[in-house]
Amino acid sequence: MIEGILIGLETAFSFKNLMMVMIGCFAGTIIGMLPGLGPMTAIALMIPITYGFEPSTGLILMAGVYYGAVFGGSTSSILINAPGIPGTVATSFDGYPMAQQGKAGKALAIAAYSSFAGGTIAAIFLLIAAPSLSKVSLAFRSPDYFGLMILGLTAVSAFSAKGHFLKAMMMVVLGLMLASVGQDTLSDIPRFTFQNMNLSDGISFVLVVMATFAMSEALTIIFKANDPTRIAKQISLSQLGSIKLDKDETKKMITTIPRSSVLGFIIGVLPGAGSTIASFLAYGMERNFVKDDEKQKFGKGSVNGLAAPETANNAACSGSFVPLLTLGIPGSGTTAVMLGALLGFGIQPGPRLYQTNPEIFWSVIMSMYIGMVILLILNLPLIPYIARVLATPRTFLIPLILFFSVTGIYLMSFNNFDIYMMIGIAVVATILRLYDFPMPPLILAFVLGGLMEENLRRSLLISDGSWNFLWDRPLTVIIMMIILAIVSWQIFKSFGRKN
Amino acid sequence: MNISPSKIISLLFFIFSGFYLYTAHQIQVFAFDEDAAFNAKTFPIYLGYAGLLFSALYMILPETKPSNVDLKILDYKKTITLVILMILYGLTILRVGYFLSTSIFLVLSYIVLGERKWIWIFILSFPFVALFMYLLHGLLNIYLRDPFLQLIGIMG
């Protein structure tokens, strides 16, 4: 393990990779700050660029973008009460009231220190947990993997769709259907290609991510006639106030951070839960832990109320890497995008990644920590300047997002067909988004489609075509029971609400 | 009778799943694979049935949380114009070249969205694309075919 950490440190601390973390954090902060554009869009826009790099460098850049986007999302939550991502909604509960009281600088500092502390503690957990879990996950067989993938898809649908479970499940099926286009991996038989050569290699993952996130988000902003930057123009971004914290505020943070970090990390590890649930749970938990007089301040600018969700959402980001790095199964939409990028590099994450590509495994973990440090020492003092991006008019912002999306796919394929297909998917995704059909389950399903089919194939062949493999092993039975519990809970919730 | 748009989308997805299932059955597998426990069409067939099941459930069950969208506030004109511009961009990018088609796409998109600051429209189109191309072509070594720049002798 020590040897691995040293390899990771050597890779992460190379000049090129340090630059990538810095660029990633900076670009991620800017994109994440723009309301409506979250980490998935930020990472999606970076993928075409990363394909020119080594896998570890590309992944380090994407990890930096991820953290930067989460930090950027907090900034827009605090300054203009417009969370860039769902994971920072809870941040606005106390962050925005603080900003209204003229303490925006302080709120941003609390957010940055909490994010740093939460991310650091979670990175240490990841450092300890990931190798051990990798060893445990070697015991997993094809039926278990197949079950885990269904669990991931069901959990993401249940948690991310906010009461639209069936809509999310339709998106899962659509994602799997899109993934089935192209030649069958084992027999090379063309499927759903309609004799079109452009479809024989399947639909590009980058194309689907760009279309369903970057492009459709841009089109949705125009379609709904939203101007996410309107509020930003009305506030003075240069008068944010001091970023220095007093003793009392620091003391409050010290008690909040450890418990929120542990909660955030655990929630992050669970498939589908992610930073949104972690931040809301941490906010609720903190409200129960504090004294009555502090409880009254919640929602009006409480330090604990701001530190708890900020710590938890960053800890959850680190936690979400655990299933990706140890099992090769992403637990969230963002890590699904990363898995897609890794597969594009020809790397299959999973229990053996720890042994076969130690430099990737460890350098990603190390770069997370470096990213935290960079966000704290570089981005925090620069926030008054970076925040000016919030005032970028949408008349410039939207065409630039569309331009980056089209360029991204053009650079990968150099043909018109992919551009048209991307526009088509983006238009459909825009309509689906309008009626609350969630996109993260679609992306997760698209990325997992090939792996799911492969594991189902192996399981069915081993059990001679029988579905007994679902209850042959205790581990598979446990996974299937959790899936059943999630589905039953969703059905119960739906009927409960109706009655 | 009012049918919610989400139910109409589910109906369309039901029809799409039916078509997908039909096409999945048409996949030609090798003769020796026809009766195998798993072949190239097994997984797509399951997916087709899953699509039919979820969309049918959505259509049959009452909507617990309907999505309300005020269709009157949607900006159809700008959205459709932008989509058409993107299609034209896709059409010209290979024939005209990256530089000219991208710059024109950006200028027209800014104007369609209501921007009238001409100096910024210019800066964020032609010089911006030139800089971006230099970054890709000159620094990252990513080849960009450009007949227009080749014609005027800027690109080899």
Number of helices of chain B: 7
Give the proportion of residues in helices of chain B: 55-70%
Question: Looking across the biggest beta sheet of chain A, what order are the strands in?
Answer: 1-2
User: Which runs of chain B of at least 5 residues are low in confidence (pLDDT < 50)?
Assistant: none
List low-confidence stretches of chain A: none
Order of helices and strands of chain A: HHHHHHHHEEHHHHHHHHHHHHHHH
Structure in words:
The complex is a heterodimer of chains A (499) and B (156). Chain A has helices at residues 2-12, 15-33, 39-50, 55-80, 89-100, 104-137, 142-160, 165-179, 205-223, 230-234, 247-269, 274-289, 292-295, 303-319, 321-327, 333-344, 353-356, 358-386, 394-413, 416-434, 440-462, 469-472, 474-498, and strands at 182-183, 190-191. By secondary structure, chain A is mainly alpha-helical. Chain A has one domain (2-498). In chain A, strand 1 and strand 2 (190-191) form a beta hairpin. The longest helix of chain A has 34 residues, at 104-137. Chain A is globular. The N and C termini of chain A lie far apart (55 Å). The mean pLDDT of chain A is 83. The model of chain B has no long low-confidence stretch (mean pLDDT 90). The N and C termini of chain B lie far apart (65 Å). Chain B has seven helices and no strands. In chain B, helix 1 packs antiparallel against helix 2 (42-60) and helix 3 (76-92) packs antiparallel against helix 4 (98-112). Chain B is mostly helical. Chain B has two domains: 5-70; 75-151, no CATH class. Chains A and B meet through helix 8, helix 9, helix 19, helix 20 and helix 21 of A and helix 1, helix 2, helix 3 and helix 4 of B.
